[in-house]
Each structure stands twice: as structure tokens, then as C-alpha cells.
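DM from R.C. (forwarded with permission)

"hey, sorry to bug you on a friday — could you get me a structure for this? deadline for the figure draft is monday and I only need the backbone to look sensible"
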Amino acid sequence: MQVNVQLKVATGTVAASLGYESAVESTLKHAGLKMYPKNPGTQDSMEACLFRVPVKDQDEADRALALLRDHEGVERVGVAA
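My reply, with the result:
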């Protein structure tokens, strides 16, 4: 099970979205969670903003969703089985 995260892209570039990535990563780290790129190494700004957060169960998924839903750096978030 994982939570899928789409970060906002500040100006349409990978470099500009790194601030959002850092802020979201920090929020998750404080909750004991970690996010990973869905498309590591890509230079495509639309693919570079996609991440996954592995979770062990629905409770952990709900906790991640609660942290990410209102985060200023997150465009979209959802659970994938």
C-alpha cells in the first residue's frame, strides 16, 4: 500500500519545485514517513513532481493523507493499494 503525492510545480521546472519537495519531505520525516520519486532521474517537470509514500496499513495511510491534504506544496494526494 502506498500514498501517491503530486507536488505543485512552482514555475514549471524541476528546480523550482525542489522547495516544495523539501518542505513535504520534512513534514513526512517528522511523522516517521518517507517519500520516494515515482520516476527517479527524470527531467520532465510533470513526472518529477510525482512521489510515493510507502505505508504499512490504512491507519498509516490516513495519517499521511491528513498531513499532506492541506500542505501548501501538494497539488494532489491519494491512496493506491
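R.C.: lifesaver. The radius of gyration is 12 Å.
me: no worries. Residues 2-80 form a domain with the Alpha-Beta Plaits fold (CATH 3.30.70.3400).
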